[in-house]
Structures are given as structure tokens and as C-alpha cells.
Design brief:
Layout: E1 2-8, E2 11-16, E3 26-33, H1 39-45, E4 56-63, E5 74-77, H2 87-90, H3 103-107, E6 119-123
Antiparallel strand pairs: 1-2, 3-4, 3-6, 4-5
């Protein structure tokens, strides 16, 4: 797959990287739209980064053992990779989770977290389905 990286001051590049694969209750999502948040500051200041973007909208293209999303579902990609088990996560305050999942340790490779890419992987709990009546 391709993704965007920042490689210097006001310099970005499209690079080829390994396409992630769904694991357990995580789904592979094809990114259709990703907003620009503070990434422009990284670009402007030349802060090198290979993992850009943290929220998006897209379509589920593969699942492993998911039962909350299915291939073809249009979804919102929520930010971060919370543990899903701590007190904060259980109280729907996952954004404050102190036990963020190490993507590389969990999946075996580092790719799949950037939304400025063709694909990413996310836990199904962070992929609310977009109702059909709304267009992307």
C-alpha cells in the first residue's frame, strides 16, 4: 500500500509499505477521507514522521473474527489504540486510556495506524458504522 510521510522541512513523500492485515477483532479499513489536524505543523516545521493522521472515514475491506463490523461497512475511524479493558475504556473514556496498544507488538508489523495511507487496521469497537442514508 502507499502512505504519506514527512521527510524534511515542507517536504513529504508517497512511499510503498506493507499492507496491514486484520487480527482478531480488528478490521482492515480502506481510507476514503482523512482530515488534516495538526499534521500541517509537522510538515511546516520539518518534523520527520512516518505515521500521519489519526481519524478518518472509510470502508471495511477485511475482517478476522469481527462481529461488530463486516466487509462493505462504511465506518468512522476513531483515534488512538486504547486497551479497551481499563476503567477509563470501560467508562467510554478511551481517549484518556493510559494503556495504549503497541501496534507492532500486537500485529507483528508497524504499519496500519496512519490515516494518511490507503489502509489501516483498528479494533472494531473504534469503527462506528456510518448509516447508509449518509454519503461519504
Amino acid at each position: 500500500m502507499q502512505k504519506i510521510i514527512i521527510n524534511g522541512i515542507s517536504s513529504a513523500e508517497l512511499v510503498e509499505v506493507q499492507t496491514p492485515e486484520p487480527v482478531k477483532d480488528w478490521a482492515l479499513v480502506k481510507i476514503n477521507a482523512a482530515p488534516m489536524c495538526t499534521e500541517y505543523k509537522l510538515y511546516r516545521d520539518g518534523e520527520i514522521s512516518a505515521y500521519l493522521g489519526h481519524e478518518a472515514a472509510g470502508e471495511v475491506v477485511a475482517v478476522d473474527t469481527s462481529n461488530k463490523v463486516a466487509v462493505g461497512d462504511r465506518v468512522v475511524v476513531m483515534p488512538q489504540y486504547p486497551c479497551g479493558e481499563c476503567e477509563l475504556c470501560q467508562a467510554d473514556e478511551y481517549i484518556h486510556c493510559q494503556n495504549i496498544i503497541d501496534l507492532k507488538a500486537f500485529t507483528g508489523h508497524p504499519e496500519g495506524s496512519a490515516t494518511y495511507a490507503q489502509y489501516l487496521i483498528k479494533p472494531e469497537t473504534l469503527l462506528p458504522v456510518i448509516p447508509e442514508k449518509y454519503e461519504l
